[in-house]
Inverse folding.
């Protein structure tokens, strides 16, 4: 006999994951990476540069630019959020930290919207588990809560989420509004008011964050799914509800399209030729970036293959397909693939009731060995930097980051130690007699990802800050500038321009044929095409300044001959 659904779940298997533990896990993942560091290269500090310019009134709010250079992404809302935060923050709060505060909220919104989106899908009739002949099957509310917990754990476990979700870039805003749109469409049949507001905010925010085409595709797919959803377009009240959902989706989509068109946010970013795509590289990216949600999502599509048109499978599949295809055809592959993670995590959650015990055990053992090994390496390298024992890791750090001086922080050490102890307790719990909960297979992946991210952002943060921030380069340049004055720049990236403006408080101006500033700062080596734009006979080389951790970002400093 063919079962109507592959999910066979008892009430005992949907025990609730303790809310305090889940909340602490989310906090341990969200907070580290936003505090205690400087803006990092390249997209992080470049986006902050646009926010800083807007906050100081040096750029147009409808067309942010940095020394005449437009942002990499044709977005507005992320830059507005950072600029408003800088303006509203007290004077004692560093502008770079103030700009991160809205993005902390965006990451939290991503996690929250994903949980409620999966919960709403799990409440749909076709997602329910098989009813038992003599009772004892999972209660629908408890089942939906357990599946949602699994979806959130799957999202936290995704390896590709960690760094990009802690940067102040439009990519984080895009994934946050994608998750909000996903929740709205998932909950629209059950909660039309709040879900409608979420769809409107999600699609509009996505359009204002530089992805109007994806907002349009998500909205069109949601409308098509609603139009063909048998559960929603039934008889009587169900038919009226379905028409209401279509009207809400259509209205939200229209608002997003009109908003993007009015503000000129439509841009063609597709690769000119598919022959330029590195398919092997994209395959590797898909595997590590989406692990473990990606493989589990594929398992869901196979096990639920008879329900592919059901809302709980079709909706996240559409969101994932749109993001994956965008990853293939646009240059920003990692940041485009980021938008697929909430949907892939939702699909992964529905694999949990169908996982075989051997597959769950394989996930547990792989996760245990991988993340425990990573944590051990992080601790060994940190101990070596602090004590010199063992000597080789400290020597490698000194070679890769010349000039770096290790420091000790009691707060960072305490947080890292607490996280490591919590990991040891989690491993002990998972290997104990707690095998019934369906979300159990994703506890170790999510906990391990949070552990390693927290260790990196505490124990290794000074070294990472030195390696990825531009302040060491700025300090080295300022050593040679013995007299104040404006500085002409030539060939510098937007990230470098932001660094010299923010860290060095330098008055930067684009280089011109007739020099007006006593100093010239150019990218090294100075290309012949760049030197044509200025008269090099007016300038005398002062020094070539090396960025300590990257020889590809050296700069050359010149002084105008008349000012010798």
């Amino acid at each position: 006999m063919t079962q109507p659904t592959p999910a066979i779940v008892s009430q005992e298997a949907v025990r609730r994951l303790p809310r305090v533990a889940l909340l602490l896990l989310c906090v341990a993942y969200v907070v580290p990476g936003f505090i205690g560091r400087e803006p990092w290269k390249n997209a992080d500090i470049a986006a902050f540069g646009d926010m800083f310019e807007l906050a100081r009134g040096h750029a147009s709010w409808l067309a942010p630019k940095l020394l005449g250079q437009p942002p990499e992404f044709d977005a507005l809302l992320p830059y507005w959020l950072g600029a408003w935060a800088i303006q509203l923050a007290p004077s004692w709060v560093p502008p770079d930290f103030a700009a991160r505060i809205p993005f902390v909220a965006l990451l939290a919104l991503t996690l929250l919207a994903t949980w409620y989106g999966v919960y709403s899908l799990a409440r749909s009739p076709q997602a329910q588990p098989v009813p038992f002949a003599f009772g004892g099957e999972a209660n629908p509310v408890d089942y939906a809560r357990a599946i949602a917990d699994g979806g959130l754990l799957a999202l936290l476990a995704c390896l590709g989420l960690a760094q990009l979700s802690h940067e102040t870039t439009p990519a984080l805003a895009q994934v946050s509004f994608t998750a909000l749109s996903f929740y709205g469409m998932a909950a629209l049949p059950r909660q039309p008011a709040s879900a409608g507001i979420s769809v409107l905010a999600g699609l509009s925010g996505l359009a204002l964050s530089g992805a109007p085409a994806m907002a349009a595709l998500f909205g069109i797919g949601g409308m098509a799914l609603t139009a063909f959803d048998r559960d929603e377009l039934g008889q009587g009240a169900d038919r009226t509800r379905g028409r209401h959902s279509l009207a809400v989706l259509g209205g939200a989509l229209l608002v997003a399209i009109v908003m993007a068109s009015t503000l000129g946010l439509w841009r063609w970013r597709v690769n000119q030729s598919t022959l330029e795509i590195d398919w092997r590289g994209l395959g590797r990216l898909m595997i590590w970036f989406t692990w473990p949600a990606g493989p589990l999502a594929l398992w869901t599509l196979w096990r639920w293959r008879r329900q592919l048109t059901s809302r709980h499978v079709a909706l996240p599949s559409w969101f994932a397909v749109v993001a994956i295809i965008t990853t293939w055809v646009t240059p920003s592959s990692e940041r485009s693939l980021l938008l697929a993670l909430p949907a892939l995590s939702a699909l992964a959650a529905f694999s949990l009731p169908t996982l075989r015990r051997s597959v769950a055990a394989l996930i547990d053992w792989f996760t245990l060995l991988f993340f425990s090994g990573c944590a051990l390496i992080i601790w060994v390298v940190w101990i070596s930097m602090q004590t010199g024992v063992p000597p080789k890791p400290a020597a490698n750090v000194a070679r890769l980051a010349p000039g770096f001086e290790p420091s000790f922080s009691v707060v960072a050490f305490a947080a890292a130690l607490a996280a490591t102890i919590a990991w040891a307790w989690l491993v002990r719990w998972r290997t104990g007699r707690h095998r019934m909960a369906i979300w159990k297979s994703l506890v170790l992946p999510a906990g391990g990802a949070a552990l390693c991210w927290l260790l990196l952002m505490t124990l290794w943060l000074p070294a990472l800050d030195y390696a990825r921030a531009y302040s060491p380069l700025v300090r080295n340049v300022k050593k040679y500038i013995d007299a104040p004055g404006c500085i002409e720049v030539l060939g510098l990236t937007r990230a470098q321009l932001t660094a010299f403006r923010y860290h060095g408080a330098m008055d930067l101006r684009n280089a011109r044929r007739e020099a007006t500033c006593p100093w010239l700062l150019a990218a090294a080596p100075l290309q012949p095409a760049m030197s044509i734009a200025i008269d090099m006979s007016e300038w005398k080389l002062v020094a070539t300044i090396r960025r300590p951790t990257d020889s590809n970002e050296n700069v050359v400093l010149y002084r105008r001959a008349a000012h010798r």
